[in-house]
Design brief:
This protein is 30% helix and 17% strand. The strands form three sheets. The protein has an eight-stranded mixed β-sheet with strand order 1-5-6-7-10-12-11-13, covered by helices on one side. The chain is of the alpha/beta class. The protein has two domains: 16-37 and 53-346 and 454-501, Metallo-dependent phosphatases (Purple Acid Phosphatase, chain A, domain 2, 4-Layer Sandwich), CATH 3.60.21; 372-448, no CATH class. It has helices spanning 32-35, 48-53, 56-62, 67-80, 110-113, 116-122, 145-150, 174-181, 198-205, 214-223, 260-270, 301-306, 372-386, 397-408, 415-418, 424-435, 439-448, 482-486, and strands at 88-91, 97-102, 128-132, 160-163, 238-242, 246-249, 276-280, 285-286, 289-290, 312-317, 323-330, 333-340, 367-369, 459-466, 470-478, 490-497. Strand 14 and strand 15 form a beta hairpin. It binds fe (ii) ion (FE2). Residues 104, 134, 165, 319, 341, 345 line the site of fe (ii) ion (FE2).
Length: 502
Amino acid sequence: MGSEDPARTYRSRSSRLSSADAGWGCTAKGSFIDLLPAKAPRFSWLRPSVLWRSRNDVLARLFDDPTDDARRRWVAAQQAGGVGRDALVDRTDLDAFSFLLLGDTGEGDKSQFAAVPGLLRAGADTAFMVICSDVIYPTGSVNDYPERFFLPYREYPGPIYALPGNHDWYDGLTGFMRVFCEAPPLPRPEPRPRPFSRAWLRDLLWAKPDPADEAELAAARELRGAPEQRALQPGPYWVLDTGPLRIIGIDTGITGHIDSGQAAWLRRVSAGRKPKLLLTGQPIYVDNEYRPCSIEGGGTVDEIVRDPEHGYVAVIGGNIHNYQRYPVRVGEREIQYVVAGGGGAFMSATHLIGRVNVAGVDEDDFRCYPLRGDSLSFYSHLYDRRLRTRGLLAISPEQASALLAEWLGTRPTREEARRTAVARRTRRVAAILWRLPTRRFFHRWFSEFSDWDEPPFFKSFLRLDVDSAALRIRCFAATGCGEHELDPPLEDEVTIPLLRWS
Ligand SMILES: [Fe+2]
């Protein structure tokens, strides 16, 4: 491991041990407040204009999804400009190094900035950072990059690479390709669709990319203008090859699959038993479900991951805004499947995840952040505030933890919750929350439309330490409290031996 590791000096604090370290009862907001721009808008998914600008998601699902064709055109244009077929970033000079990884960052509001001071501290010595999915909400516009990418991460000293999520595709990936690949907008595809055809109708309604405000973009680039901060990546999917580990990032577009050309590339760059880490916009195991990620024309990404000749040790995906880890046995091996989408946007509930049993993973081996009890308590407070029920719907973290442990047949990880008996009131309130119409659907959409602008934020980021012997993955919390910025709670840690596979 690298000799300097600021994250090592931290005391062992975690929301698994105390509700204070989950950020409940936080008295002093962190210094992230000072990083916010003076005119920071309060990002809200409830605004009709935001939903209208995001309409390409609905159009891609209703009509034929144009993403695969658009991606082929982007990749062809990159290759015509001199990018190699393997889309390789060669960092084989790195032998023992660390990097940061966070997903679903770009709301540009307090929940995004709340993660910044902690990651700057825990990642001070890291070689680079990767943003995994949804770099810019709501539509990936090039004109939102100044406030939602360059400004928040202006102090991060290394280069930043990224993978697009569905939101980055809502402008046809134009903003993403401009910022990360310095690619000009694509010309309109020819031939145009036949009038009144499905493709014609889709194109008519399709939100077009914003033209770049060149002066503002140039000024924003200066915020991360130091030579060691600059990064130029080959395209929307890429290989970052280091000495001990090959890191491969795929682009799953709007609907969560990959095109046949990308699959052929993925098979090619996955060949050989050098240890590999797959990064994706769509996690393969999430919410106790298996989503293997289909390939245009047949097959799945997970088949490529599971092939023992490919040497994959872990898969990390964004898109769901929390942290989850599933250690899955695949033959003689164990592959770590991780969700890491807690980097900035609203928190996706974890209390809806039932007792884990997918792919034979035992509940005791599953990890998530926030803990389910904290998630239920958070949402109970959110419902209470939104529905103006003056505390009637609020459940304390201890009560929520004790109740969830009872439902799941587990023991609370926190001593304080173990000593708590579940009150009748808690059961009644939880039953009300659970009886809201079409329970899962309602919760899912309420979760989608629930911004929270004060601590605890339950945001998270990963620090990965790599050398020839092992890959260590640690999930750190960003609560938004001042004390946790200096000493981010450690929510999960796993060390994967690499020697056996190489
Ligand atoms: Fe997202």
